[in-house]
Amino acid sequence: MKRIFLRVAYDGTNYCGWQTQINGITIEEVLNKTLSDFLGEDIVVIGASRTDSGVHALGNVAVFDTETRIPGEKIAFPLNERLPEDIRIVESKEVRGDFHPRKCDCIKTYEYKILNRRFALPTERLYSTFIYFPLDVDKMKEAAKYIVGEHDFKSFCSSGSQVRTTVRTVYSLDVTKNGDIISIKISGNGFLYNMVRIIAGTLVKVGMGVYPPEHVKEIIEAKDRQAAGQKIAAHGLTLVGIDYKGYENIVNEE
């Protein structure tokens, strides 16, 4: 038995998120079925990030155990031939049997995109959120500074989350604008349920002038979901990647 590591990219438009559920087709479900059919085994993947319905990914991570004799690095190619076009394996390799994608220290990076112009563009509708009201990017940048660091992010967590602690560390939060696209890029050691979308929604409120930038500090201190801005739409969010500390040490070199 060996454990295979996958980096998975997908367009989340047609899926009900990552985790298998009865409401509709999911990324996890497709991977399980495709791998099981390909390897002739009952395969169940373990995912690193359970992205919501409509959220995209460039580098989510999953592992699975298998008896196959196919080298880990060669699994991606035949698997991609069997997967739908909106799901692709961008890396595969064998790792140590004790590696668990949700229990190892890592840095997760997400990007939220906003199309900020007078009229929407059809080509951006699936990958950014359209906001016609002009946003003050400089104020959003100023507000973002209050979020960086280790804080109790309870104000930015949707109800229904089952976690032991709501304390997380945000390593960086950058707000940039290129043409009509505003990008909110955030990296941290982990994120609460809907945390990135709520942070983005709160920064939008600042950009609209509803909150002054310094009010974000008060929102954090409140530890109350009602104090923060709205949870913004899922389709503007992409999981850019997950980097594991000491990544080279998880690879099975035997």
Please sum up the structure shown.
The protein has 254 residues and is α+β, with helices and mostly antiparallel strands. 21% of the residues lie in helices and 30% in strands.
What does this structure look like?
There is one protein chain. With 254 residues, the chain is α+β, with helices and mostly antiparallel strands. The protein has helices at 27-39, 76-82, 137-147, 195-208, 215-222, and strands at residues 2-10, 46-47, 56-66, 87-95, 106-116, 129-131, 149-152, 167-178, 181-188, 237-244. Strands 1, 2, 3, 4, 5, 6, 7, 8, 9 and 10 form a 10-stranded mixed beta sheet that branches. Helix 3 packs across helix 4 (195-208) and helix 3 runs parallel beside helix 5 (215-222). The relative contact order is 0.19.
Which terms summarize this structure?
254 residues, alpha+beta, 5 helices, 10 strands, globular
Oligomer: single chain
Structural class: alpha+beta
Shape: globular
Gyration radius from CA atoms, angstroms: 19 Å
**Quantity of strands, as a count:** 10
Taken as a percent bin, the fraction of beta residues is: 25-35%
Please give the structural blueprint.
Elements: E1 2-10, H1 27-39, E2 46-47, E3 56-66, H2 76-82, E4 87-95, E5 106-116, E6 129-131, H3 137-147, E7 149-152, E8 167-178, E9 181-188, H4 195-208, H5 215-222, E10 237-244
Parallel strand pairs: 3-10, 5-6
Antiparallel strand pairs: 1-3, 1-4, 2-3, 5-9, 5-10, 7-8, 8-9
Helix pairs in contact: 3-4, 3-5
